[in-house]
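User: Predict structure, ligand 3-methyl-2-oxobutanoic acid.
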Amino acid sequence: AKKVRIPHLQEMKRRGEPWPMLTTYDMYTAELFDEAGIPVLLVGDSAANNVFGYETSLPVTVDELLPLVRAVTRATKRALVVADLPFGSYQLSPEQALATAVRFMKEGRAHAVKLEGGRRFAPHVEALTGAGVPVMGHIGFTPQSEHNLGGYRVQGRGEAGAELVADALALQEAGAFAVVMEMVPAEVAKQVTHELTIPTIGIGAGPDCDAQVLVWQDMAGLRRGKAPRFVKRYADLAGALSGAATAFADEVRRGEFPASEHAFH
Ligand code: KIV
Ligand code: NA
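Assistant: Predicted complex:
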């Protein structure tokens, strides 16, 4: 199958065909999602919570994320692989953003990078796109700013809706090829999607975005506990894996595994 390229994403927007994006952080899931026809895979800094066990996305580092990006790009044939720039690796200056993005492109072999923030990050986006690095924006609720935003809260309600539109337009103007909108009212997301020529990718942003993204462990029910409202679980991987581990343990304890056919004679 042909590699997914940025113009394909723009064409899907023009045709009104919604497309899916998933996070992935390792070889097996990257291979499976690629084969399932997910056109864009995101190695999110959500690896902080979903791989490394941090409570927020803030602690994860470039050095922790790079090997995950490399594993995903090695395992992917068709999908466009986007690497998230972690907290502290791009905010200082457009120069810092470019230096970090170059590492993800060279060492991680990513096809694009993503960073959080609106208008104030237009110079950072411009520095990257000017150097040949495709950039995906991320506005609305931005987890790297959760302490400043007062926790996980819907962004862009009321007056703030116009700010969100301005942020999205600024990112597009700076050369971003797509914009993630996280936890914003569906009506605002619809308006942004209408005003932009580049695709919008929603998470908790209603049905009118050009694309939809979920964290894969949420999508497949590996993460347990109460899920946010915007999550839909399409499988019960936690149940399946816990059942498998329990069955294995029981059979070993009962002396049933390995059976004769699992042994060399
Ligand atoms: O890190 C992440 O998983 C993300 C997506 C939710 C967009 O940024
Ligand atoms: Na992220």
